[in-house]
Hints:
Blueprint: E1 4-6, E2 16-18, H1 19-26, E3 43-45, E4 48-51, E5 59-62, E6 73-75, H2 78-81, H3 84-103, H4 107-120, E7 124-125, E8 137-142, E9 146-151, E10 162-167, E11 172-183, E12 186-194, E13 207-214, E14 220-225, H5 245-248, H6 252-255, E15 262-266, H7 277-290, E16 300-306, E17 311-313, E18 319-322, H8 325-340, E19 348-353, H9 370-381, H10 389-394, E20 397-400, E21 404-405, E22 427-430, H11 446-458, E23 463-466, H12 480-484, E24 489-494, E25 496-497, E26 505-508, H13 509-524
Parallel strand pairs: 7-8, 10-19, 10-20, 20-24, 21-25, 22-23
Antiparallel strand pairs: 1-6, 2-3, 4-5, 8-9, 9-19, 11-12, 11-16, 12-15, 13-14, 13-16, 17-18, 18-26, 22-24
Amino acid sequence: MFSVIPANIRQGSGKKVVVNSCLKRAGTTKYVGLPRNFHPSDKCSGAIYRTVLSGMNATATINRRHRGKEIRMERKTGWEIWSEKTKKAALEFCEGYKEFLSANKTERKFVKGCVSKAEKEGFKPLESFKKLSAGDRFYKVNKEKVIVLGTAGKKSPVSGCRFVLAHIDSPRLDLKANPLYEDENICFLKTYYYGGIKKYQWLTIPLALYGTVVFKNGKKKEIEIGEKETDPVFNITDLLPHLGKDQAKKTIEEGFPGENLNVIAGSIPAAGYKKEKTKSGILKILKEAYGIEEADFISSEFQFVPAGKLKDAGFDRSMVLGYGQDDRVCAYTAVEAVLSVEKPEQTSFCILVDQEEIGSRGSTSAQSEFFRFVIEEVLEKSGMSARDFKSAVQNSMAISADVDNIFDPNYKEVTDPRNTARLGCGVVLTKITGGRGKGGSIEPPAEYIARIRNILDRNGVVWQPGELGKIEQGGGGTIATHIARYNIDTVDCGTGVLSMHAPYELTSKADVYSTYLAYRAFYTEKT
Length: 527
């Protein structure tokens, strides 16, 4: 169900009418496009949804008094469209969403969490299958940072598959290879920011540290500090306003250089050392608690992320505030969608990758050949050959599951209000990404966008179009380009986010749930 409905037909206008009789007068008995929980004998106030033309399967709103008039459109939120039952389902869904993202703030942890969820639903490692049959559920992990979840369909993979792809990396602060130093008896850790951030947003907030240390003998050590109530947290200082006169004259870029994003690690000078006493004391703690020596930082991955759980936001608790929602909101909803589909018509894949925020160039990114390797393995275990890869992908459909901008009334000047998504109005279908002459956009064909619209409307999904800012103001890339290069029809479709790339991002629970419903409809809709 498109969240944009005719402006001259308002919910609640006119008398109560029985759906059956209205459909009869409209000349159709089809209920395509009606919400799933909307029974034909139910009553609705003023307007009812029906298919305008059976060949189009487009959802529209009809009212006897407005037949023949021009149809204009206005946006409505999911809260205004949904039944009380659906609203409750959305709120309950977001409880699991908050819990999962709060517990899995790195790529490695997110993948482990997905494996745990999948195995509870009967998914098994792909390598454990000698042959794949309809309904078989499998997963495959790449370097602990990428996961592919799949369910074998009733039809041959060569007839086409359904792909939903999201990335699970988020902006953060990584430690440099040689991070520890001391200045004025304070021990610091030097960082390198990951992805596009506004650096000043990371000052003075409580930070948690996540690390994977790999020692020379190959053993690993996982470290998490800052999330438990009894844990210490970390911090980057800021200049007090009393001394900030010169800083205030600088641009944001000049006033907050990346080299100054140094995290305070400790301040007690250790006894028994002649120099760098505080640093020596921190190294002693690391050695005793975790077995880490200074050289071990070279073969480690340490990330500073905002400490604390995702929380409800607003008096009405209609929103979620927290770290990493770009793009883990799409990743989580895609995982939940693929787990909910037991025996789809077409083989369905949920693919979660790394390194999108830094260009998708590594072995765990969307450009890795791992994607091809998995598809070829699925083909071979489905009784086909790796030579069938070309036919399989060219007959497939894909969604690049990535977030989009939400219209922010505080910053109206950077967006086109007619084409920017609104908070709570559903999952966002983004026709054009990129910017400045569509640079970096995959520009999906109109025929494919029409198919996606049809799927969303037929399944009663609340959705809306969107874009990432004014033409010469905004723009951004997604992993869509890396799946589209296989000649797979692809479009960007995901949740709208306020304060994107900030340490704490804001989403609407209506949009989160609509995203899940959209991906589920994509997996289950028959061709």
